[in-house]
Amino acid sequence: MTGPSTGPSRRSAYWCERAWLGGPEVTEDVLVEIEGDRITGVTVAAGATPPGARVLRGLVLPGLANCHSHAFHRALRGRTQRERGTFWTWRDQMYAVAGRLDPGTYFCLARATYTEMALAGITAVGEFHYVHHDPSGAAYSAPNAMGEALIAAAREVGIRIALLDTCYLASGFDRPPSGVQIRFSDGSAEGWAARVEGLAREYSSARDVVIGAAVHSVRAVPRDQIPTIAGWAVEHQAPLHVHVSEQTAENAACLEAHGVTPTQLLADAGVLSDRCSAVHVTHLTESDLALLGQSRTNADLCPTTERDLADGIGRSLALHEAGCPLTLGSDSHAVIDLFEEMRAVELHERLSTRERGHWQAASLLEAATGAGQRSLGFGDAGVIVAGGRADLVALDVESVRTAGTGSGVETAVFAATAADVTDVVSGGVHIVEDREHVAFPRVARDLRRSIQRVVGES
Question: 68, 129, 216, 280: which is the annotated catalytic residue?
Fold first, then answer.
């Protein structure tokens, strides 16, 4: 899905005080040389800083991958916490925001949201995108105007985007879309494929954009339509993502309608594979675990959202032991902090089992970096190695959160937060310096203004 680099070649070098190159330990005094968007050399350079190299203090990590994002959900933060309820009552509030979006407001909100991600060390986002059409359900004059707005936003911020263009055709099993959902529907999987084909052609040679596919859920795409989406993903060798068993009500409805679990239905439709990411996978049977593991489907957990929406605790360790690579996302953006998502995986297992020490820090870092980048179609990212994408994230290891914690991988996973990210290099470009985005230094203002426009406040 990616092509050759364009534009003038840039050369730079960074001397990293400490760097995580994979495994359980970190390495001191690492020189990373970069040309364009590629790392050309990684060497240990003990002693004085090499001439011409910029210094990155603290602990340097590969770029993080946020594998599940709904950018417009950022407008809900702090606004959905006033009453009791469930996922389904929260969804009504989310739909109200979705109904107010247009390409212009979506671009501004997404750009501010992606800037917040960049400040948190995220260099690639998987945007699960389903608000396709105007409020009447009619196509915009440019059929992919909303998706193009998201791509433009990510590019301005300087992070990569996997636009996971989502098929959404029903409000439930055997129920047509209603209300704001008419904005989401292309009428059929064939209609969805025809629209998204234009995006795939346009970005076929882009290095910073992947056009992927998504089945919103088994309740939102009829069973006989799902193979069309899966087939499109196979034909284009594109990532394919799907919400799976986030709610027990979804499982019960699927069993009533089809006599199988959502995972079994997706397996029968040809969805599960090592290019597929199953999002949430919170309520699974033993058979579901086996199907997901045998197919090497990625298990994309979003712990801060799953607890915010009262979804439940995902079975991360069981999924891992079954054979599923673990990836992470911030989903509804109740929090944008992949460090919190990493440690939440372990801490949720502790709550569920009343035992400690299920996940090693290095394994959780791999989920947030290499495994996540691969699941989005950026297979050459997520590791600091010659030939890889030139993404570097520097963490302050002397903040009030991290001081005295050892400055190793455990510091990153079990002590640091997004606030400890000091510098970010994304695709060879230094986009965050000293905790400030180079192009958008007033992100709090940008977030406030864009959210006020979307929610209708002056």
Answer: 280
In whole angstroms, give the CA distance from residue 243 to residue 249: 13
Rounded-to-integer distance, Cα 233 and Cα 108, Å: 29
pLDDT of residue 233: 98
Among the listed residues 288, 331, 396, 446, the single catalytic one is: 331
Distance of CA 82 to the CA centre of its chain: 27
- CA–CA separation, 375 vs 328, rounded Å? 10
CA-wise closest residue to 66 among 3, 16, 103, 119:
119
Q: Is 234 exposed, middle or buried (0-12, 13-18, 19+ CB in 10 A)?
A: middle
- Whether 331 sits among the annotated catalytic residues: the reply is yes
Paired tokens of 151: 């791509």
Catalytic, 280? Answer: yes
DSSP per position, 228-288? HHHHHHHHHT--EEEEES-SHHHHHHHHHHHSS-HHHHHHHTT--STTEEEEE--S--HHH
Which among 152, 156, 182 has a CA at the least distance from the CA of 170?
182
Mean pLDDT over the full length of the chain: 95
Measured distance CA(250)–CA(266) in Å, rounded: 14
The string of DSSP letters for 54-73 reads: EEEEEEEEPPEEEEEE-GGG
Using an 8 Å Cβ cutoff, are 431 and 97 in contact? Answer: no
Q: Is the distance from CB of 168 to CB of 133 less than 8 angstroms?
A: no
Please report, for residues 18, 68, 185, the alpha-carbon distance to residue 337 in angstroms, rounded to integers and kept in the order given: 21, 13, 31
For residue range 307-333, list pLDDT tens digits in order: 988 899 999 999 999 999 999 999 999
Confidence of residue 1 (pLDDT cuts 50, 70, 90): very low
Tokens of 21: 């190159």
Name which of 73-82, 181-190, 211-220, 332-341 the model is least confident about. Answer: 73-82
pLDDT score of 2 more than 70: no
With contact defined as beta carbons under 8 Å apart, do 34 and 10 qualify? Answer: yes
